[in-house]
Amino acid sequence: MNDREASLISEAASRVLDQDETLYSIVKDWNARGDLTRKGSSWKHSVIRNVLNNPALVGTNSAGVENCWTPILDRQTFERLTERLAPDSARRTNLLGVKSSKHALGGGLVVCARCEKPLYPVARQGVRTKLVCRAFANGDHESHPKRDNGSSEGRVSIDASALETYLFERCLAHLDDDAFWDDIKRKRETADSDRARLRAERDARQGERDRAARAFIAGIMSERDAQSEVARLDSEITRLSEQIDRAHGGPTARDVWHERREVLDRFKDWTASERRLFFRALIERVSVGDWPSGLPTTTLPRKNEAPRAFEDRRAALTSEAMRQRVSIEWSD
To answer: CB–CB of 161/129 below 8 Å?
Structure first.
């Protein structure tokens, strides 16, 4: 294997493990920029998957003999990679289309505090994007009682941009929480013993997800119920996969981000995928509750109030509302 091929493999491993990219996006990128296979043909999803699962990458030949040549990947990275690419436990495709790649907080990270089901990005022309507990996707729930007109109460809605800003500020403060990260390091010293349990739990969730998809296809489950169930299970599978990945001894989120303030300062310029990866590295789940009672839902300028004073007062109100209605579960 030549240096160019070794460089592509290292790049692919990094993009899958560190940037949470799919093999499809890597293949599309390589073909577009002209980095083809050694035969000069375009890359295919199946080809790159086989390459990245090949023990030859760690110097092991087809007979299982180790140290036959200089490895391209270290064994720990290779184990993490094959774990991530396992077909029955780390699928990135959702046949019901409930994940969102356009919004940083899509994909089940943010849930309704009432029913604990995902909030979905809703973008309308000329209106700021909101995250909403949608009745047609999440279905009926005792926490959302019906009104006389048939609509349900308590459907949480929150401004997506404002929530992103709030979560980013909380993440920055969280990276400075020395006690939390010291505790995480102690927990990781015994994490290997939990890997089998985590794999079994993840496989069980994957089985539930597959059954929900088959139930929808067979007409046993409605599309709305199937979407809600698959979104919930996808979120759990992602969480468990990340815990298994961390059990291999990878760096903590603090190791990656704490000293990279010059990168964090450009957060607003990141793509939605980059912002989503940052949040998922630090946060397991965000629960959004109702608007706090006692706080005004609208803010108007007061008589003779200076524009800057009005903006500061409105920002303070938004911050207080976020503090009261948003609950964060930090990843370990």
So the answer is: yes
Residues near 318 by beta carbon (within 8 Å), at least 6 away in sequence: 162
User: In this structure, what token pair is assigned to residue 94?
Assistant: 């959702």
pLDDT at 192: 57
Residue 102 — very low, low, confident or very high, per pLDDT cuts 50/70/90? low
Across 294-300, average pLDDT: 85
- CA dist 297 and 56 (Å) reads 61
Q: Phi and psi of 177, rounded to 5°?
A: -85, 85
C-alpha–C-alpha distance, residues 257 and 278, integer Å: 9
CB 157 within 8 Å of CB 132: yes
The DSSP bridge partners found for residue 146 are: 152
Going by C-alpha positions, the residue among 87, 50, 57, 94 that lies closest to residue 216 is 94
What is the per-residue pLDDT for 246? 65
Give CA–CA dist 229/137, Å, rounded. Answer: 9
3-state secondary structure of 63: coil
Provide, rounded to the nearest whole percent, the portion of the chain with pLDDT above 90: 16
pLDDT of 78 reads: 87
Query: To the nearest whole percent, how much of the chain has pLDDT over 70?
Result: 89
Q: Residue length, the chain?
A: 332
CB distance 317 to 296 below 8 Å? yes
18, 135, 156, 332 from 199: Cα distances, Å? 20, 33, 33, 17
Quick check: helix, strand or coil at residue 280?
A: helix
Beta strands in the chain (DSSP E): 110-112, 120-124, 127-132, 157-159, 283-288, 326-330
Give the best-scoring range by mean pLDDT among 85-99, 123-137, 169-183: 169-183
Q: How far apart are CA 71 and CA 57, in angstroms?
A: 6
Strands 283-288 and 110-112: parallel
